[in-house]
Design brief:
Helix 1 packs across helix 7 and helix 4 packs parallel to helix 5. A 7-stranded parallel sheet has the order 3-2-1-4-5-6-7, with helices on both faces. It has one domain: Rossmann fold, CATH 3.40.50. It is about 50% helix and about 15% strand. The chain has 10 helices and 7 strands. The protein is an alpha/beta fold. Bound molecules: NADP nicotinamide-adenine-dinucleotide phosphate (NAP).
């Protein structure tokens, strides 16, 4: 895809990894539509993009308002459209024992991480098909490839996002629309893991948020279906999990993943 003069909608662009994705796309010549709830966070991203001559429009929106998405997209399209890239990056996580989560907390995680991206994409897809160009990039997580204790709803939401992307990619294979999913491991320097202020398990390490932004650019360049962003090779462990979940669980315990998750439980 020729990038200059194109437009990308990036959700979750007010803090964390989202601003890295928005800035990287802007540096490549995309105009950015930055979406999140926090207006001052969005303004910060806009100023950073404008500081190197990029273009960024901000649009505050709560993605939990799923019924409003069609109107939101039509409004954006008439103001800033057409756009060619949708990065479903907004997300939340909440460490807790499953049986201590409220219905509202479970619904918030599932809506923000899965139902919202799916419905936002459904609102945009007909426009991508009509203009014969479009790429949906979903930011999932390694937590969607192997379940995480005390974060099981987050894992379920990200596993859903990965499988939805997989199904969609096959379904729209002969269409002009591409679907990619990116699965980061622990991310340092910014974002929800960094905010938790716990060091990553030494054997797993962490990656800089720019690596996620680079993966988005790679997905656009190559039309990749799935990219894992992790400090070391993790696919062998994921493959092992398909053969023996007991062994994969034991390795994760050795790495200290459940112990780290337990520390992150909100009290
Ligand atoms: N950080 C990591 O280690 C890591 C690892 C794997 C995957 N990921 C994934 O990467 C993505 C970005 O995470 P992050 O680490 O950057 O998280 P973050 O720092 O907590 O930022 C989350 C972003 O999502 C937005 N958001 C949350 N709820 C929203 C809502 N209802 N409506 C609109 N926007 C909403 C937030 O904006 P407002 O609060 O302003 O609305 C914020 O911009 C997420 O999907 C996350 O699951 C992160």
């Amino acid at each position: 895809m020729e990038l200059q003069g194109k437009t990308a909608l990036v959700t979750g662009a007010s803090r964390g990894i989202g601003p890295y994705i928005a800035k990287s796309l802007a540096r490549k010549g995309f105009s950015i539509i930055a979406v999140a709830r926090n207006e001052s966070g969005l303004q910060k991203t806009k100023l950073e993009i404008e500081s190197f001559g990029g273009i960024c429009h901000t649009q505050p929106y709560d993605l939990m308002n799923i019924n409003g998405l069609d109107g939101f997209v039509n409004d954006l399209w008439s103001k800033h459209g057409p756009f060619q890239i949708l990065v479903n990056n907004a997300g939340v996580e909440y460490y807790q024992h499953f049986d201590r989560l409220s219905k509202e907390e479970i619904s918030l995680i599932l809506k923000t991480n899965l139902h919202g991206p799916l419905e936002l994409s459904r609102s945009i897809l007909p426009k991508f098909i009509e203009q014969k160009s479009g790429h949906i990039i979903n930011i999932a997580s390694l937590a969607g490839k192997k379940g995480v204790a005390y974060n099981s709803i987050y894992s379920a939401s990200k596993a859903g996002l990965i499988m939805w992307s997989d199904g969609m990619r096959q379904e729209y294979k002969d269409s002009p629309v591409n679907i990619s999913v990116i699965c980061p491991g622990f991310i340092s320097d910014a974002g929800m893991f960094h905010d938790g202020q716990e060091p990553p398990p030494p054997l797993l390490g962490s990656s800089h948020p720019q690596k996620v932004a680079d993966a988005v650019l790679k997905a656009i360049r190559k039309g990749s279906c799935e990219i894992i962003v992790n400090s070391g090779p993790i696919r062998p462990l994921l493959a092992l999990g398909q053969i023996s979940w007991k062994l994969a669980d034991a390795i994760l315990r050795c790495f200290g993943v459940p112990a780290l998750s337990r520390k992150r439980i909100s009290v």
